[in-house]
Write a structure and sequence with these properties.
It contains 5 helices and 81 strands. It is mainly beta.
Length: about 1050
């Protein structure tokens, strides 16, 4: 074996023994004081080291002598003072020698020496040096070497067999080293231990219903035995189970967790230091049952009636029957004044009521169970005829169904009724074990001889008693019950009601699992026996079932179940009319079961290839299930064109048609039968439903063929973007390099189609007009086949497109703005673009603006507006533009009031003045040419017309200097006309001339260049020759 240890919290494992040990124990040295360690062991063989064992429990190292050095002194008020001997020995410096060096453990590989620490010890911490010498020689040398020894034990490993050694010890503290102790007696290594012998005489004895007592004898040689391992085997099984994980040191052990009424055998192993023994011989088989003991004493003796010559005595059954039903009771009697008891009955009586002839006037009647100790005398009963008018006391009080909040009390009616019939009972309760404070449980007397007492407090102890009443009053009370605590046993089971697999209503009661075999008694209303003709009982192991032959109203009532000889294990159930009605309906369904449907009736599926599948699924059916398929009142079966499949395990029925035809129209009915269960389900596949299925099958078949070549994965469709663009697209799949795609509109090919690598083709229309209406067709083809997609963008579809465009156009409208003009205000909204399909209207103060002289709406491709001419203060308010896209109205508003109106009005007035000034300012109406060429010596005449209000002034300028009439220059003005005449022009007259007109609203200047050339020369090419 290899031993390894770990200081708790470090996670580091270290090996303890350098050499492999054969024994199953090993002394570990060199540990730290007050430190927690864990250990584990690895087995070693020639192949190597095995897996480590399970971890040991953590163990703390401590000084075992420390308690003997501590003294506790008690002072006033419960205080304590702890004094150690070390504090009283502070004068000790160099320590004294240890004493009593001796052998405390011996094996064939090592010796463990121990000693007694010096006394007095001293205050300073002590360690020890261990020395050894061969016996008979004084050659002492250090055995502990560099090891620090704090404990009073030391294990020496390096000894030679056959040699005798002596050991001595020195004490060490910080002041020095003591003298050596007296040497030990000579010691040598012992003989190697062998595997211990096996135990013998293994005997199993009955104990309880779930345990046995196992006993055995130890081997003759017990040296090295650490304990015993126990094993059990349930008779008939080949598996042996280990009973204990840790060796048992004694030779007896109670084995728990066994199964009641099962037979077991046992065997034992000895556990030694050198290994485990072989198995002992097996014990004799034993049946697990409670051991039979003498019953406990009866109790609650009471006098039930007395005639003067006879006394009727009753008593309570023993609390413990000793594991076997009580066979009977013996009664003894004696007179009160005497001490000698005499037998009343020679043979045991089974009932707990005894009527005896009394010869003495005063007697006492103790009773006891067979095999039990005699019941102590409680009181003396006077043998005197009863003549009181009130009834006697009830007797035989029993408790049933004890729960946290309730219990049931049963009793027997008094044997003495008094002078009239008993009319009822008063049940009283007292809290506590000895309390005599009795209170009535019910306000009125009860008629039955049982009562369920409710409203108890969990964990509280109670006693109960009963008094009978008649017309004369309340009789004497019964003896109280034994104290009972209101609590529910964790193993308690209540009576359950249900319906079995054959449809019979039953009541079921299950006892705790610890009881494998029980005898259960069922009663009605706690007293009435069950009519064998109405119900029968069956008990198996710990479960009892009461099954009604034909439950009816006469079976209603309170049913109780209790385990015989264990009345504390009991329960009840009130079988009501509501239960009967509910369970009778369930019983009918069980006796006439219907096969349940899992699918939602018949389902019709059409595959991608166009084949049709009719199917339905029920709950799983057995192999004996039958199916009859009916079509139009005629049973059908599988044919080449119509296959019928029936998967019984999954309850699946399917009819497969490769190609649906007119002959397959009709009503399909699946009739199932599985044992007693049956059902049928019908599919009506006629008229419109059949035509739709037939059309869908044909369409999918065509589509399957179409997909053999390139085909449209997504057919032609259109969308409208946020920018109000129309995009038509389709997606083609299964293409190759030879595949061609063409688009057409009304038969004319469209070339502006965009092809994306993913197979998506798109055609974009930036602005939609009525010209876009028409039939669009896309055709894709190659050598494998051809497919086409058609989009009819006409009528309703084009109307839907326009609505969608109108909506996007309306949503693209920006906020309403105002622009002042010389004529008034212009309110407008900008859009992506405007469609005439979209209906617009303008509103002022929530009222529609009608066309008049002062308002004029207008529109362009990207703007909507309304003009308000000559605005006034009355035009203040909220203006709204409503745009209706065919389904929804979109609004844009502007509140033209306050500062916004003032600013707009001011700008309007300014622009109006600018317009007036521009209209009336001076301006040249008939201008001059840019360049004029004239030959030298000729006369030049330049005329200019102007207008304005008032009539403008007109001036001629040469090189920005005014020309006046003088010499050859003459300036004439006449009603908006001015003429400049130059006679006999010369070369010096060339230059820049201009006419300048002005009035109060403005001015204008028009320039003209005069170029004079000599005779014989050519005029300028860009000049107007005069």
């Amino acid at each position: 074996m290899s031993l390894i240890l770990c200081e708790l919290g470090t996670g580091k494992w270290e090996r303890c023994n350098e050499l492999v040990q054969m024994l199953c124990h090993y002394p570990v040295m060199g540990l730290k004081e007050n430190t927690m360690y864990q250990f584990r062991v690895c087995a070693v063989n020639q192949a190597g080291v095995g897996r480590p064992s399970k971890l040991s429990n953590p163990i703390v190292t401590s000084d075992p002598m420390e308690p003997s050095r501590t003294m506790v002194v008690k002072v006033d008020r419960g205080r304590e003072i702890v004094i150690t001997k070390d504090q009283l020995e502070s004068q000790i410096r160099v320590p004294f020698s240890p004493t009593d060096v001796r052998v405390c453990e011996l094996s064939d590989t090592y010796v463990v020496m121990c000693w007694t620490e010096p006394d007095p010890r001293g205050k300073e911490p002590l360690t020890y040096f261990v020395e050894r010498s061969i016996a008979g020689k004084e050659s002492w040398h250090l055995a502990s070497l560099d090891m620090t020894i704090s404990a009073t034990r030391f294990a020496a490993f390096d000894l030679q067999k056959g040699m005798a050694y002596c050991f001595r010890v020195r004490s060490v503290n910080k002041y020095g080293i003591s003298d050596p102790s007296e040497p030990s007696q000579p010691v040598s290594l012992g003989e190697a231990l062998g595997v211990p012998a096996a135990p013998h005489c293994v005997q199993a004895i009955k104990d309880t219903e779930r345990s046995i007592l196992l006993m055995w004898k130890e081997p003759k040689n017990t040296e090295g035995i650490l304990g015993y391992y126990l094993y059990s085997n349930e008779l008939g099984s080949s598996e042996w189970k280990t009973i204990n994980n840790k060796p048992v040191s004694s030779t007896r052990f109670s084995v728990h967790g066994l199964r009641t009424n099962k037979q077991y055998v046992f065997r034992v192993k000895s556990v030694g230091r050198a290994g485990n023994s072989r198995y002992s011989e097996e014990s004799e088989p034993i049946l697990v049952q409670p051991a039979k003991l003498a019953p406990s004493a009866p109790s609650a003796i009471s006098l039930l009636h007395c005639t003067g010559t006879e006394m009727m005595i009753g008593w309570r059954a023993p609390v413990n029957n000793g594991g076997d039903p009580v066979h009977g009771y013996y009664l003894d009697q004696r007179e009160k004044s005497q001490s000698t008891w005499s037998e009343v009955n020679v043979k045991p009586v089974k009932e707990r009521v005894y009527t005896g002839v009394i010869t003495s006037s005063v007697s006492s009647q103790p009773t006891w169970s067979e095999s039990a100790n005699r019941l102590d005398l409680v009181r003396a009963f006077l043998c005197e005829r009863w003549t009181m008018p009130e009834p006697g006391c009830p007797y035989d009080l029993e408790l049933r169904e004890v729960r946290q909040e309730s219990l049931v009390l049963l009793w027997a009616e008094p044997l003495y009724q008094g002078q009239s019939q008993i009319t009822g009972y008063v049940v009283e309760i007292s809290e506590g074990v000895e309390s005599e404070d009795w209170t009535s449980v019910t306000q009125e007397p009860i008629i039955d001889t049982y009562l369920k007492v409710s409203g108890l407090q969990a964990g509280q102890t109670y006693r109960l008693r009963v008094c009978a009443t008649n017309s004369a009053g309340v009789g004497r009370p019964s003896l109280p019950t034994d104290p009972i605590t209101a609590q529910t046993d964790s193993a308690t089971r209540e009576v359950e009601i249900g319906v079995d697999n054959d449809g019979f209503i039953f009541l079921s009661f299950e006892a705790p699992e610890t009881l494998d075999q029980i005898q259960c008694e069922w009663k009605k209303n706690y007293r009435q026996a069950i009519d064998a003709g109405r119900a029968h009982m069956e008990t198996k192991q710990n479960k009892s079932v009461l099954t009604f032959s034909a439950a009816a109203e006469e079976d209603l009532g309170l049913y109780t179940a209790e385990v015989i000889d264990k009345p504390d294990i009991s329960s009840s159930f009130n079988f009501t009319a509501e239960d009967l009605e509910r369970l009778m309906e369930l019983s009918w369904h069980i006796r006439n079961p219907l096969i349940a449907l899992r699918s939602e009736g018949w389902q019709v599926d059409v595959s991608e290839q166009g084949s049709v599948r009719l199917w339905l699924q029920t709950e799983p059916l057995s192999n004996a299930a039958e199916l009859h398929m009916i079509l139009n009142d005629r049973e059908i079966s599988s044919t080449p064109a119509r296959k019928i499949n029936f998967d019984k395990a999954n309850g699946l029925v399917e009819i497969l048609f490769d190609q649906l035809s007119k002959e397959d129209e009709g009503s399909y009915t699946a009739q199932f039968k599985d044992g007693r269960a049956k059902n049928q389900f019908t599919l009506v596949l006629v008229d419109e439903k059949f035509r739709q299925t037939l059309a869908k099958s044909a369409a999918k078949r065509r589509d399957w063929k179409r997909r053999s070549g390139p085909y449209f994965e997504e057919f032609l469709s259109w969308t409208v973007t946020d920018d109000c663009e129309l995009i038509m697209k389709c997606k083609v799949t299964n293409m190759n390099k030879d595949t061609k795609m063409k688009w057409f509109k009304d038969g004319v090919e469209i070339t502006q189609v965009v092809n994306e690598p993913s197979g998506v083709f798109t055609f974009t229309v930036p602005q939609v007009t009525k010209k876009e209406a028409g039939m669009y067709k896309a055709v894709v083809a190659d050598g494998r086949g051809e497919d086409e997609s058609i989009l009819e963008l006409t009528d309703n579809e084009f109307e839907r497109l326009m609505r969608c465009l109108s909506r996007n156009c309306a949503l693209s409208a920006g906020p309403m703005r105002i622009q002042s003009t010389a004529a008034g205000f212009k309110l407008y909204c900008s859009l992506k673009y405007y469609l005439s399909y979209m209906k617009t209207s303008w509103h002022f103060k929530e009222r529609r603006i009608d066309l008049d002289e002062r308002t004029k709406p207008g529109s362009s491709m990207q703007k909507l507006w309304i003009e308000i001419f000559n605005p006034t203060e009355n035009d203040k308010g909220k203006y709204t533009l409503e745009m209706f896209d065919g389904q929804e109205t979109h609004r844009r508003s502007l509140d033209l009031s306050g500062q916004a109106f003032a600013d707009a009005l001011l700008e309007y007035q300014r622009l109006k003045q600018v317009e007036i000034a521009e209209k009336n300012r001076a301006r040249v109406t008939k201008g001059l040419p840019d360049v004029v060429a004239i030959m030298e010596g000729k006369s030049l005449c330049l005329t200019c017309f102007a207008e304005g209000d008032p009539m403008p002034e007109m001036f001629w300028l040469k090189n920005d200097r005014e020309i006046v009439s003088v010499g050859r220059f003459s300036v004439a003005r006449d009603n908006g006309c001015t003429t400049l005449t130059i006679l006999s022009v010369c070369m010096e007259d060339s230059g820049n001339y201009s006419v300048f007109v002005r009035n109060t609203h403005g001015s204008q200047t028009v320039n003209v260049t005069v170029s004079v050339y000599k005779h014989g020369e050519k005029p300028r090419a860009d000049a107007l020759e005069m």
